Queue: 4 jobs
Job 1
Amino acid sequence: MNIGFLNITIINPAVNITNKVNLWIKNGIIEHCDLSEPNWDNDTELIEASNWVCSPGLFDMHVHLREPGFSYKEDIKSGSSAAANGGFTGVLCMPNTKPVIDNPVVLEYIKQKSKNLLVDVYPSAALTNNLEGKHIAPMMDLYNSGALMFTDDGNCVQRSDVMRIIFDYAATKDLLVSQHCEDITLTHNFAMNEGALSDKLGLKGFPYIAEEIIIARDIMLSEYCGRRRYHVSHISTNGAVRLVRDAKKRGLRVTCEVTPHHFTLTDSLLESYDTNYKMSPPLRRQRDIDAILEGLSDGTIDCIATDHAPHALHEKDVEFESAPNGIIGLETALALSLDRLVHKGILSLQELIMKMSVNPRRILGLPDIKIQKGVNANISIFDPNEEWTVDKNNFLSKSLNTPFNGYVLKGKPKYVINNNQIHKSTL
C-alpha cells in the first residue's frame, strides 16, 4: 500500500501542529511528511489534496456493534467497515450484546473477531451481571482482559448502593465508570421527550429531570468515593450540561460526550411519527441544543460520539411506540459535525479533532496518535468544504435506520489509513 497526498493540511491538536505537507504512506508507515518533494516510488498513487485535511485517526467511544447475539443488525466486521467509511480508525463497542460482555470469555470473543481489521475495536464491559443493576460484574478480570470502560449502556444502574460499590471497586485500578443516565421510575415506556408536544401527540414522555437526577447522584457518589473517574454517556439536556460544567469547575474527574443527533435535531420532528427519530435519550428542545452547543464551545463536553445503534428495517417499521430506540451514526457523524459545528463557528477544526480523536483516546487511556515520519499511519483524511447529499444506500452498515438520509452536508470523509490498510469512502 503506497499512497501520496500532495499539499495536504495536517492538523494534530495534541501537539499543536497545523502544517501543509506532502504526505507519503508506504507499507503502512509514514515515509515522508513535510513540504519537500520526496522521490516517490513508481507504484505510489499520488492524489492532489490541497483542499483536504489529515488528522489523527478519529475515534468513536460509543458504538453498538451488536455481535454476539444480534448480527442480523450489525456485526464487528460490518460495523468496522461503516466506521472506516465515516472516517474513523477506532471505536469502543458497548457491552449490551447477547451474551453480555460481563465475563472475560465474551470479551475475548470480541478481541478475536476484531483482529486484522483496519479499524481498531476496543471493548467496554458491563458494570453489573447481565446489565441487571444488582450485582457488580467481575470488573478486575474484565479490566485485565482488556476492557477500557465499564457501563451498563442501554440500562442505567438505578440503585445508589450498587453504584457506590462500583465506584469503590473502581478505585483499585482507577477504572473508568460510565452511565446511561435515566431514572426509569420516571421514564417507563417512554417514546419521546416529555413536554407539550408529547401531550399533543399522545406519547409517553421522558422528562429531562430523569437524566439529570442520575447525573447529579453519580457525580456526588464519584466525589464521595474518592473523586473517581466518571463519564456521562450521550448527554442531552440543558441541566445535564450545567451539572458537568459545575463538576469540572470543582476539579472532579468527570467527562461527557454528545451525539450529533442531539446537537442537530429537536423533538419537533416527532410530529412525523418517523421511528428514525426515536432514541434514548430522546431528542430534546431547542434550548437543550443551545446549551449543548455552548458546552461544546466552552469545553464542558469532551467528546462527540455516535451511539451508533443499528436496527433492522422490520424492527423500525412498526408503530412508533413499539419501535426500538436508536439510530446509526458512524457514516454521518464527521460530516454533521463539520457542517453544524465548524461551518457555524461553534468549533474550530482543531477543536473538532480534539473532540473526535484526541479526547476520546485520552479518556480511555489510549496513547495520542503521532503524524510524523517513521511511525505507523493511523490517520483520517477529509474535505471540510465538499458538499454532498447523504444517501443511505451508499452506507456500509448492515442497517439503514438514519434520520439524515437526503440531508445536504458540507464536509465529507475521503480516506482512512490504519494497520497497513486503506479505505476510500463510498459516501
Job 2
Amino acid sequence: MPYIPIKYKWFPGLNALRFVAAILVVLMHIHISMKQVGLPILYEIPILLKGYGAVSFFFVLSGFLITYLLLDEKDRTKNVDVKTFYWRRVFRIWPLYFLVVIFGFVFYWFILPFFGIEFRVEYPKALGVIMYGLFAANIFNSLYHVGGILNITWSIAVEEQFYLFWAPFMKLVKKRLFQIIIVAIFFFYSIAVLNGFNYFQLSDGWMAFVRSLQFHYMAVGGAGAYLLFYHHDRLLKAKIFSNKLLQLILCLLIIAYYTLYKKNFIAEILLPLPLAFLYCWLIINVSVNPKKITHFENKYTHFLGGISYGIYMLHMPVIYFVSYFTKLSPISFQGSLLYFIIFYSTVIGSTIVLAHFSNRYFENPINQYGRKWLGSNISPKLRGSVVTSFTK
C-alpha cells in the first residue's frame, strides 16, 4: 500500500522563530552602527554579534518551507509549475526588495551628499543598478563597500539564486530525490569549507562572495521537508523529537551558540553544517512535534513574525536615523543603562511600526493582487496549496 503523506496547511510557531531571527539581525546592526559613528556601545557579548547566524536560520527555514510546498504540489499534480513558483516569489519578495534598493541608491548617492555627510561611492553606479536588478547583490556587496541599507540585500539575492535552479530541480528529479539533496548539502558545504581555508586562492572580495553562497543551509531545510513529508511518523518517533531531555539539550546548544560562543577560525568554518541541522531540528520540533517542550504560537508572535521580512529589510534606515539624532543631541546620560534601553527600544519599536505599515499598505496589497492574478491564471490543481509560498 503506497504511503500517503500527512500534509500541513500551517506550521505553528515558525512566525515566532522568524521574529527572533530578524531581531537578532537588528541587534547586530545596531551594535555595529553605534560603534561606527562613535556612540557608546554595549560590551561585545555574543548575542549582539549573531546576526549572520540568524540569517543562516532564515536560509534553512526558506529551504524547508519551499521544498515542502513543491513536494506537496508534485504529489497532487505530478508536476511542478516552475513559472507559477517564480511568479509567487516575484509578488512576495520583489516589491520591498526593489523599494529598499531604490531608497539605498537615493540615500547614498543624493541625500548624504546633500547634507554634507561623507560617504564615498566607489563603485560604478550603472553596474550597481544592473547587479541589484539581477539579484546579484551578494556578488556586488562582496566586491564593493555599498552601505548598510544596500548590504542587507545580499541574503535575498542568495535565496533568489538558489530557487532559480531549485524549482526546476524538484520538477525534473523523479527518483532518489533525497539522496541527491544529501549530495548537494555536502557538496556546497565542502565548497564553503575549502573556501574558508582559502583553498581556491581567491581575493578577499571573491572569498566573501563564495562565503555568501550558503546553499547547504537551504538544502538542509529541503532534506528536513522531505523527511517530514514522506517519513512523518518515523521522523517524529526519533529520539531527538520523542525524548524531552534530548530536546532540552538541543535547545540549550542553540542558546549556547547565541549567548556564549565567540568567533573561532576553525569553528567558523566547520560549524555551519551542525548548526544547519540544529536549525532544521528546531523548525520541525517547534512546528509539528506533539511532544515538543517549547510552545511559541500566540497572536503577538504571529503578528511579529508576519512582518519579519519588513523588519529585516527596513531596520537599517531606522538605525541611521536614530544614530544621527542621538549623535547630535546633548544627552547627558550616554553610556548608561537607561541610554542603551532607550536607544535599542527606539530602534526596534520604530522598525516594527515601519514594517507593519509596509506590510499593510504596500506589501499586502501587491501580494493580494498577485494571489488573485495567479488564481485566474494557473491550473485549478495548484489552488489551495498547502503552506503558502508568499513567505520569506
Job 3
Amino acid sequence: MLRFLVRRLLGAIPLLLGVAVLSFLFMQLAPGGPDALFARNARMSEAQLQQIRQNMGLDRPAPEQLLRWIGNLLRGDLGISYSQYRPVTEVIGDVFPNTVLLMAVGLTLSLVLALSFGILAARHPYGFFDNVASFLSYFGLAMPVFWFGLMLQLFFAVRLGWLPSAGMVGANGSGPLDIARHLILPAITIAIGSIAGWSRYVRSSTLEQLAQDYVRTARAKGLVDQRVIRGHVLRNALIPFVTVVAIDAPLYLTGAVLTETVFSWPGMGRLFFDALTVRDYPVLMGILILGAVLIVVGNLLADVVYGLLDPRISVR
C-alpha cells in the first residue's frame, strides 16, 4: 500500500507542474492585472504604477517570472494578492474553512440521498418511485444552479421567512445554530446537481449487479433481499460510483462559484468570483493549483477505496 501511494504521488508531480505552467501562461495572456487594477485610481501616476510592477517582479521577462513563481510555489508561497496586498496563502486560508464546511454538509447530503434514491429505484425499476426519481433527476441536471438558489431564497427566506437569505452569520449572532440556519439553503443548492447525477449512477450500477448470476445464487440459497443487497450487490455497485464521487467532490471547493455568490457565502467560490472581477491573478492561480491538488488526492483516495470494496483489486 505504501509503495502504491508513493508511486502515485510521484506520478502526480508532473501533472501538477503542468497545471501550474498552464495556469501561469493563461494568466499572462489574459488582459488586466495590476495595470487595470491600479489604473482605476486617477491619482496614481505612471511612475508609481511602474514602481508597483517592479516591486512585484512584473517588469521581468515572462520565462523569468514563471521560474520565480514555480520556485516560490515549491516553498508554499503563492505570491501577493493584487487587490488585498496580502499573501495569497492568507487570503485563501481565511475562506477555506468556510468552503470546507459547506462542502462537507453538501457532500454528506448528496451521498445519503443519491444512495437512497438510486438503490430504491433499482429495487423497484420502472415503478412509481423510479419514475418520480427519474423526473427529479432530469430536472436537477437541467436546472441552472443559480436559478434554483434564487427560488429557494424567494420561497423560504422572502415568502415564509423561515431561513436567512444570505451570508454565513446573522447580525445578532454567530453561534453554531445561526451558522447552521444560514447553511441549509446553500448546502441544498450545491448538492442538488450531485444528487441528480449520482443517483442515476447508483441506479444503473445496482441494476447491472442485480442481474448477475451470483445474486440469483444468493437468493436461491435463501438469503433475504436486504442482506443480498447489503452484503453482495453494494460492494460491486459502488465501485464506479466511487470514481464519480472522487472526481466531483474536490470540485465542490472550486466549483461553488455560483452558489457562494448567490448566497454571499464567504468561501473559495466567492473569492474566485471576486478575484476574477478585479483580475487578481495570483489568487486565481492559487485557487486553481489547490483545486488540482484536491483532484489528485481525491483520485488517490478512490483507488484506496477500490481495494476496500473489492479485495480482487490489488493496490500495490
Job 4
Amino acid sequence: MTGEARARAIDELNPEGVPRKVLFVAGAGRSGTSTLAGILSLLGMHVPQPEVEADASNPKGFGEPRWAVDVHDEWLREAGVQVSDSRPAAWFETGRISSREPARIRVSDWLETHFAEHPELVVKDPRLSWFLGLWRVAAIRTGATPVFATMLRPPAEVVGSKQKYYANKLGSAHLAASWLNMLLHTEKATRESLSGSHVGGGRVFVRYEDLLSDWVRTTTALGRHLDVQSVIHTRSDQIREVHRFIDPSLRRVTTTLDDLSLPPRLHELVAETWSVLDGLADEGGDTPQAHVTLDQLRDAYTSLYEESEAISKSSVVAARVAQAREDAAAARDERPGLAELVPHEVRAKIPPSVRRGVRRALGRERTPGQP
C-alpha cells in the first residue's frame, strides 16, 4: 500500500477514536501466514516497515517486518533453537528469553514507534510463535490489545512446501514432528486470549483453503471476531486490490499425509491433531473439550519424542563423531604442508627419492599423475 493510501485509511478510521491493536499472525511457515498478512495490509492494517523482500518462494511478498525477523533470529541462535524445531524442550529455552525484561522493553519500544503510523498493526513471522508471550506483554505495555490469528493448512502440504522451496534435508518425519510441536504449543500459548481479561482480545483460526476460496467471508469474520476496525471499515478500492492479490494457484503443493511415509505413531498423532485443529476454525469450534483433547495430544507427542530420543542416543553420538572427523579433516586441509614451509630453493636441492620417502612417512603419497 502506498503512503498516500495508508494516510487516507488512517483518516477514515479516525485514529484518535480507534484503540491500539496488534494482530499477531502465527502458525507454521508455508501455511498461508504471508497471504493473510498481505490481505490485512491491503485492507488498511499497518505492517511495520521495512518488510522482507519477496522471492521465488513467496512472489506476492512475505508481509514480515524485517526487524522482527532479525530479532527472532538473534534470540533463536542464543537459545540454540531452530525455526522448525521438533523438541518440546525447545519451548523452555525460548521461554527464558521471553521472560527477560530488556527483551520486553526492546519490543515495546519498537511497537511504540510504529503506532505513530497507524493504530492497528499486523506482525507476522514463522518464528513468532516461539516468543508469543513476550510480544503479548510488550503490546499490553504500549496500551494495545493483542489478538491472534493462527493459519491452518494440512500438515502434509506444509511439509511438502518446505521440502520444495526450502531444500530441507532433515526429512518428512522431522518436518511433520516440528509442525506438531509448533501448532500444539501455539494453540496453548494463544488460549489465554480467550479468558476475557486484559491480557488478550481474542483469537481466530483461519484455514488457508478458506482464505483462497472466499477471502471476503473469511476476513470479514476475522475482523468482526477480533474487532479490527481496518477490516470492518474497509473501502471498495481496497477490496479490489485484494482481489488482484489473491491467486488460488498460490496453493502449489497438494501432498497428502500418506505420501510422507511417516512412522505409524507419528502419522496417527499428526492426523488426530490436524482433525482437532481444523475444527477450531468452525464457528463455535474453539471449545473447552477441544482444548482438553489438544492438551492430551501435546502430552502424547512429548512422550513419543522423549521415547524416540532415549533410544536414539547412539545415532547422536555417531553424528557427533562423524562431525568431529569432518572438522579435523577440514583443519588438516587448511593447515600448510611441510613442503610449503620449506623454501623452494631448498626443496629443489632434495633428491626426489628422499622427498618420496618423506611423503610416505607422513601419509601424503601422491597418486599417479599428481604433481
